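Table 4 source record.
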Amino acid sequence: MESFSLDILTDLPLFQGIGKSELAQFSAYIPHSFVEYKEGETLAMQDTPCRQLILTIRGTVQMHTLSDNNRFTVFERLQSPVALQPEALYGISPHYTHTFAAQTAVQALVIPKDGVTGLFSRFEVFRLNIINLLSTYIYRQGRWLWHNMDGNTEKRIVDFIHTHSVYPAGEKILEISMDYLGRQINEPRMSVSAALNSLQKKGLILLKRRKIIVPALEKLIQSRHT
């Protein structure tokens, strides 16, 4: 698997632009391993220390995030290649804030923290790639602080789902009661129920018991402007 994975390493988000000679140095000098996760196996767990960088090469990962008070959970589907929370490696609290599980069989490149530090010192392209990734993450978080949260109940629901999603596209599943969702967006339960049923009639969501399934978040977000 080593030679096969090195051939496609430049498709990974943090290795784009790295040449063959640098890849050879990576293989020789940077500690790493290639790991295969079975369907349903956990890659990383929320609130546990982040001591390695996981870069998925193939397969689909389900990310889920449980609120601090255990009242709601957001599920997101991630398609490889993807870097799993590189921002969690360093900083004041180097812990995962999401749980990642293999939705299908997953192949991943795993680099321990000291290996990532070695990449910083050896490869400028890697440093620039991770700075760009972290800058994008920080920009999105900062923009949301100034987002206009006014609007009708439908818009407030869309904004709630959008705000609690890491990636602004793809399938999302929100496990939450209508009562608690109403309290979160300052709307009565009846208004929340009517708005959710309206969104379902438009084909933007699917309602199950205590679940809101969003097939494509980008379409739901676009509905705010129509």
